[in-house]
Amino acid sequence: MNKIRVFVVDDHHMVIEGIRVLLQDDPDIEFSGHASHAASCMSFLEKNSPDIILLDFSLPDKNGAELCAEITQKYPTARVLGLSTFNQQSYIRSMLDHGAMGYVLKNATRQELSLAIKQVYSGNRYLSFEAAKMLREANQSKDHLPALTRREKEVLALISSGKTNPEIAGQLSVSVTTVDTHRKNLLAKFNVRNTAELIKIAAQNGLV
Amino acid sequence: MNKIRVFVVDDHHMVIEGIRVLLQDDPDIEFSGHASHAASCMSFLEKNSPDIILLDFSLPDKNGAELCAEITQKYPTARVLGLSTFNQQSYIRSMLDHGAMGYVLKNATRQELSLAIKQVYSGNRYLSFEAAKMLREANQSKDHLPALTRREKEVLALISSGKTNPEIAGQLSVSVTTVDTHRKNLLAKFNVRNTAELIKIAAQNGLV
DNA sequence: AAAAATATCCTGTTTTCAGGGGAGAAATAT
DNA sequence: ATATTTCTCCCCTGAAAACAGGATATTTTT
Description:
- The structure is a homodimer.
- By secondary structure, chain A is of the alpha/beta class.
- Chain A has ten helices and six strands, in the order βαβαβαβαβαβααααα.
- The first copy, chain A, is elongated.
- The interface between A and B is large, with 41 and 41 residues.
- Chain B binds a DNA duplex through residues 149-152, 164-166, 174-178, 180-185, 187, 193-195.
């Protein structure tokens, strides 16, 4: 059996070196290289085909989820294993949605990292305990955040930037009463009484 | 000349191993141990006295700034060098305020890390370029946040919770027109046109 | 004691909110 | 393939709230 070739994409030297060390004693795994940004990752993949790509979410030139989508679309046999520190809950889902087969956190032990790599290599999914927990929590908190239509998001953004209904109507080339309806629907969806509360919740959840 | 003894406190195995590797080739530096939480850090320090403590901000049992304060208070000769990933701007100031002599980011190169350690060991301060930049930006953004009076803060909080002027007036036992003036002053101070924009900025700056 | 900041109040005008209703297009379910 | 729901857009009326501009007392600072 050949060694599992692992390629690491992370812009933190410390993390790359750390992963290299954590994996070096595992006879089934081979560290096949690293990249510190999306561009160099893609050029590496043109000439090499690692089995597993350990991909950090926060990269300087592109976010990890986008890169993950690119990779899995262009190289369907590649398996991506997401990587991040804890306080980035929402990223986990985003990464998985874009084709990652698993997710480990940067506080993973040597054993967990090896296990995750082998699981994903075997075609299974792997989610670290904390990552799975975060997903559940994120789902719960997102459940009571309503789904907005494209138009509603536009209107919400314009409201939050201080535009009045007549101004928004002009900018979107619709009637004022239409904008007013969108605004009312936003209030209803968020279950709030007025604009102030609406914007507070939207802002606190990163929607504006 | 003795080697500079460096002790690392970080709850990410990958980072600890990475730092160990990055430092192992520097003949002036010796990796003297590591801890993954505040408690084990303090117990290590009871028996050992490293020259430099590389201290991550986010620890499981305590935040880095608190630990930093404890360390510098109890062991005045110890020099702390803060450590974090980028997106934690505010932490940098907090760490420095609590006695850290410098700050490096986790994307530091081998050279930068060695330099930072040597600078701090020599009694100088060391701030990585990005850390210094972040400090400036943080200062700037706080500078143009207006100072609010007690009453204005109260009114702002009530507005953001969805209360109307009549309700706020009732709650504060003043007339509606008074509340209205406070609200107008808030709009003027923040230089915004209406409540929506006001709450957005307030929320984005953690005021509500 | 003067100046500045803070808190209070009044009067109109504009904007938002509440409560209705309806129509065509697109996505989903049967 | 058809029915149904969801999405997007449109309209009206009246009440409530927010905004603009101006004014006056009361603290705090200087």
